[in-house]
């Protein structure tokens, strides 16, 4: 079990494309050629129905259909999502780049939010993820070439891996923080929990969102070459 999210990442020629983002180890540890993605369908009476569907993750030769970042635990894969989900996919422009956190002076004590399925648990029968809140727990956060990950102060469980870590204008900032973006942004991907000698330290490791951008660029390069 893991968590993933969708990015609206058009192809180089402008063709619409929806990309699934998750942690690389989430897909690598799934046996078989398919995984189940838990879509949710809005019903006429206002309720929601959980509608898991199979998605191919390996080809007939058992080769992965996803693209993994060469250094980071991030995987991306083109996916045929239901229309409602494709329309709601996160715009590429909402992914933090290598300068975003520095530009908005994001640092220790600032709140971030994360969605996930701890130990496979969902928020309700409709299969919605559970929202968690944590504070940035490490410094410095940039340059990302020197600090490719940062810590978030919240309890992480199996099933949270691959979830988005993001900022919204509802998140609390440190006193004296300068400026706020005019839209939410994804700061990174939750990739693992911190453990020391089998003891959980209630810290999550977040890989910067710039590496999502780089992984999608790798996907673009592979698609340009073709099978």
Structural summary, described in words:
The protein starts with a strand and ends with a helix. Helices cover 13% and strands 35% of the residues. The protein contains four helices and 13 strands. The strands form three sheets. The protein has a six-stranded antiparallel β-barrel. The chain has helices at 24-28, 83-87, 100-103, 210-225, and strands spanning 5-8, 18-22, 34-42, 48-56, 67-68, 75-78, 90-91, 111-116, 130-136, 149-153, 164-167, 185-196, 199-208.
* Second rung of CATH, namely the architecture: Beta Barrel
Quickly count the helices: 4
The H-and-E topology, N to C, reads as EEHEEEEHEHEEEEEEH
* Helical coverage, percent range: 10-25%
| The CATH H-level homologous superfamily | Trypsin-like serine proteases
Distance between the termini: 29 Å
**What is the radius of gyration?**
17 Å
Topology:
Layout: E1 5-8, E2 18-22, H1 24-28, E3 34-42, E4 48-56, E5 67-68, E6 75-78, H2 83-87, E7 90-91, H3 100-103, E8 111-116, E9 130-136, E10 149-153, E11 164-167, E12 185-196, E13 199-208, H4 210-225
Parallel strand pairs: 1-7
Antiparallel strand pairs: 1-2, 2-6, 3-4, 5-6, 8-9, 8-11, 9-10, 10-13, 11-12, 12-13
Features:
227 residues; mainly beta; Thrombin, subunit H; 6-stranded antiparallel barrel; 5-stranded mixed sheet; 35% strand; globular
Describe the structure in brief.
This protein has helices spanning 24-28, 83-87, 100-103, 210-225, and strands at residues 5-8, 18-22, 34-42, 48-56, 67-68, 75-78, 90-91, 111-116, 130-136, 149-153, 164-167, 185-196, 199-208. The protein has 227 residues and is mostly beta strands.
